[in-house]
Write a structure and sequence with these properties.
Number of domains: 2
Largest sheet: 6 strands, parallel
Order of helices and strands: HHEEHEEEHEHEHHEHEHEHEHE
Number of strands: 12
CATH topology of the largest domain: Aldehyde Oxidoreductase, domain 3
Length: 289
């Protein structure tokens, strides 16, 4: 499976970040200190172990400033590395390289951080059959990149936005007047290719959703929001005991200390907002050679 995004999705993010850093006058330090035409060769080095994501951000950052830059990657996206590993080696116009340095490092460190944290969650549930999914709790403007990083870490993507799947949450249910009314309205509205998910906050709402599944008008996915471990296990029992063909997703109260026990209840998917909203930036440096 190829772990890459088309350049057309990445380039606008990189260009915007470079423009923000260059400001109104460009890199005045490089212009003042670096002779015109000087070359620079440097390596991007991991200061800590992690999982790689964001190589294309490095490549496009450098090429945007120097279209003739030579860039050599040392491993593929999704690869694990140790502290001290060289991730990328590049040779470019020195002024251009120094002007692109921070943007490249910011994006690479951010995305490696997301991929590394995701891998930790995936490894924590290994052997259970549960899949780790992200959420829409992403950095504004970076969603495509951060969700790509989740895939690099071995996780799967939840919906990308408000337009690619229906997710009926507690406030939708409150306005609609209940789980049944909300799900029936959603089913009447969507075409055959769009998935419908409903969030339930207790076993009583779960039973309402499962009865709709039996009737053939139910959701494709039921999100079990902030269920206790005992209630998660009971939800799985009711799903399997009734032969309901519906995916069960656990959400809320998930961290590295609880995710294995949640997976052990038999749920199909565990969505984790922390993958993107709380991933620490991985420490990566640029060393001239």
């Amino acid at each position: 499976m190829s772990l890459s995004l088309p350049d057309i999705l990445i380039r606008p993010i990189v260009v915007a970040a470079l423009a923000e850093d260059l400001g109104r006058a460009g890199d005045v330090t490089a212009a003042a200190c670096i002779p015109v035409g000087a070359r620079m060769r440097a390596v991007f080095v991991a200061r800590k172990p992690g999982v790689l994501a964001g190589l294309d951000c490095v490549r496009l950052s450098l090429l945007e400033m120097d279209p003739l830059a030579r860039i050599e990657t040392r491993m593929a996206e999704g690869g694990a590395f140790e502290a001290g590993a060289v991730l990328v080696e590049a040779d470019a116009d020195a002024r251009a390289f120094l002007s692109a340095e921070r943007t490249a490092l910011n994006l690479l460190g951010r995305l490696c951080g997301v991929a590394t944290l995701t891998r930790a969650y995936v490894e924590a549930v290994a052997g259970t059959g549960a899949r780790i999914a992200d959420t829409r709790k992403t950095t504004p403007g970076l969603r495509a990149l951060e969700k790509h990083a989740v895939r690099c870490g071995g996780g799967v993507n939840h919906r990308f936005g408000l337009d690619d799947a229906i997710l009926i949450k507690d406030n939708h249910i409150a306005v609609c007047g209940g789980v049944e009314a909300a799900v029936r309205a959603a089913r009447a509205h969507v075409g055959h290719l769009m998935k419908v998910e409903v969030e339930v906050d207790g076993l009583d709402q779960l039973d309402q959703a499962l009865s709709l599944v039996t009737e053939g008008v139910g959701p494709d996915v039921i999100m079990l929001d902030n269920f206790s471990l005992a209630d998660l296990a009971e939800a799985v029992r009711r799903q399997r005991g009734g032969g309901h063909r519906v995916v069960l997703e656990a959400s809320g109260g998930v961290d590295l200390g609880t995710v294995a026990a949640i997976a052990g209840t038999g749920v199909d998917v565990i969505s984790v907002g922390a993958l993107t909203h709380s991933a620490p930036v991985l420490d990566i440096g640029l060393d001239a050679v």
